Amino acid sequence: MPVYLVRHAHAGNRSGWDGDDAARPLSPKGRQQADGLLDWLDGRTIDRVVSSPAARCRETVAPLADAHGLDIVDDPRLAEGGNARSCIDALVTSGGDVVLCSHGDLIPKVIRQLRADGMHTKDPNLSQKGSTWVLEVEDGRVVAGRYHPPAKT
Question: Which residues are paired to 88 by β-bridges?
Fold first, then answer.
C-alpha cells in the first residue's frame, strides 16, 4: 500500500512573516505546487489525508482532500520539530492509501531512519518544497521508497 509523504509547498520566507509561523500560508508558487500535487496524484486512490497542523501543510493538501471529498486530519506527529520515529509510526499505522504532509526539518530525518531500518531506495535523501516520497508499507514497515520532485511552476 502506498503512503505519500509530502513536504509542504512553498510558503515564502519565515523571516518575512510577522505572525505566528504555524499560520504562515502558502505563497502563489506554493498554491501552484499544491495544484501540481493534485494533478500528479490524479486517478490514484486516496483514503485519507493527514497533515501537520501548520497552515502551509494543510493548504498544500487541501486541493487533494477537496477533490477526493475527504477531511484533513491534523496529526501533531507530523509537526515541525517532530521526532522521526513518531512520524514513522504515523505513516505505518495510517491504514489504506494515505497522503501525509510534513516539514523540511522532519522528512530528511524520517528518510534517514527508514534507510537505517532497511527501506530500499535508489533516490538521494531529498525534500524539496512540494515534493513527495512514495513509501511502500508492508506488514507495518516501510520496505521501499521513491522520491518525486515538486511540480514545475
Answer: none
Picking from 75, 123, 133, 80, the residue whose alpha carbon sits closest to that of residue 104 is 80
Q: Give the list of residues 6+ apart from residue 7 with CB closer than 8 angstroms, or none.
A: 101, 102, 103, 104, 107, 127, 128, 129, 130, 131, 132
Query: What are the residue ranges spanned by the domains of the chain?
Result: 2-10+23-148
Per-residue pLDDT of the chain in tens (153 residues, 90 and over written 9): 799 999 999 997 766 657 666 768 999 999 999 999 999 999 999 999 999 999 999 999 999 999 999 999 999 999 999 999 999 999 898 888 999 999 999 999 999 999 999 999 999 888 999 999 999 999 889 999 999 999 876
Is this model's pTM higher than 0.90 or not? yes
- Identify the CA nearest to 59 among candidates 80, 91, 35: 35
Q: Which three cell numbers stand for residue 87?
A: 512520524
Choose among 126, 116, 73, 112: nearest CA to 96.
73
CATH architecture of 2-10+23-148: 3-Layer(aba) Sandwich (3.40)
**Residues 6 or more apart whose Cβ sits within 8 Å of residue 19:** none
